[in-house]
Amino acid sequence: MQAVKDFFTNYIVMSALVGWFTAQILKMFTRGFKQKKLDIPNILFGTGGMPSSHTAAVISMAVATAIVFSPASFEFAIAGVLSMIVMRDAMGVRREVSKQAAIINKLVIDVINAENEENREKRLKELVGHTPLQVWAGCAVGIVVPLLLQFIPFFRESILYLQGA
What's residue 97's pLDDT? Predict the structure, then answer.
């Protein structure tokens, strides 16, 4: 039971989760505005879109780690490198996968005539990666969240505990 309490009172973990959740909530507005409808399960648990929730989570973790252990710590070095890998992956590999999925889906429709119900479900997911703007917006969310959370007394105590004070 103590492990569960430690998990939910850990400032770094909570910063990452709140960063991710905040980005997902913001997607409700950006995607809902763009599509003129709210598909809440897809928005909350889907990938791609504005802002990048993966980026928001890892940047929140990195900023919280810097606050707790200092930017000169090995903990921050690990979190920072992980953040760079995730951001690069979102703009690179995952974005290319999105483009390839769109092309493959178009080929399936044009060449195989996959308009019937049976083949419609086999379409590849096209919204996987992110544009650089979506990643930078996720980065902004990721910076703001732990900076705000540190002013909540509950999390302030967690920071002091993690620092060994």
Answer: 65
Q: Please check whether residue 55 is in contact with residue 135, taking contact to mean a CB–CB distance below 8 angstroms.
A: yes
Q: Are residues 63 and 141 in the same domain?
A: yes
Residue 63 · residue 69 · CB < 8 Å: no
Q: Please indicate, yes or no, whether residues 106 and 159 belong to a single structural domain of this protein.
A: no
Report the sign of the C-alpha dihedral through residues 90, 96, 97, 103, in that order: positive
Identify the domain containing residue 118 by its residue range: 93-128
Place of tokens 């791609």: 48
Same domain, 16 and 61: yes
Please give the full DSSP string across 62-127, using - where no structure is assigned.
Answer: HHHHHHHH-TTSHHHHHHHHHHHHHHHHHHTHHHHHHHHHHHHHHHHHHHH-TTSHHHHTTPPP--
Residue 14 predicted with pLDDT over 90: yes
19 and 56 belong to one structural domain: yes
99 and 50 in a common domain = no
User: Among 2-11, 70-79, 92-101, which range has the highest average pLDDT?
Assistant: 70-79
Number of structural domains (the chain) is 2
Tens of pLDDT, residues 137-157: 999 999 999 999 998 888 887
User: Both 69 and 102 in a single domain?
Assistant: no
In the three-class reduction of DSSP (H, G, I as helix; E, B as strand; rest coil), residue 14 is classed as helix
